Amino acid sequence: MEIFSRNTLFWGEENQKILQTKHVAVFGLGGVGSYCAETLARAGIGTLTIFDFDKVSTSNINRQIIALNSTIGESKARLTASRLKDINPDIKLNIIEDFYTTENFDNIDFAADAIDTMRSKITLLEMCKKNNIPVISSMGAGNRIDPSQLYICDISEIENKNAPFVSNIIYQLKKRGIISGITVVASREKPFSIKKISETEKIITKSGEKIEFTKITPASTPFVASCAGIFMASYITRAFLKEYN
To answer: Which domain holds residue 15?
Structure first.
């Protein structure tokens, strides 16, 4: 396809055809996930499952690709789907407007974890590990300003394990017997926020399950989340290309 002609100048027609056969699931379509999903579509991934229960709010506009004044109050999943179809009309989409709880996915080639709530994130990573689904996880893009300090590694090799978000994830996974085998995008930058904001959020899933959790609102700049999402998409794409696997 002509829309991918510049891609093929780099990785060739055969690899472009390989990407068309791949199915990637992106969990969370905020600052990280929205950029990850869009970049995967622009790379030519043939099928995407996109997962988010939330709607666009005014505070999303500074960093989320689907967040505009004209889209406030609209479904992030539906907005993302519309953009992806506008990029590649032939892309196959599975749109799930729900809060991730315990679903298993046995027909995906890769998972991109951009979830920002602890319970769902741990559940997803545990599911991927148990089912041998390759996954790359964002280990916190909030409270940071410098995207040049992002890096990709195994979860066992994270350099700054003392950052609260990261340390909590590592602790919860270790309780489940998981200490390695999950690829992450992490940051060497020390997280910073002028003040801490938290609130209790109540959600009812499509299945009727009632979930209540404390949501901590991080500081977020326009720079780091977007780059973390692109890092994730690049890693996933390279995993599918013949020269990199």
So the answer is: 2-244
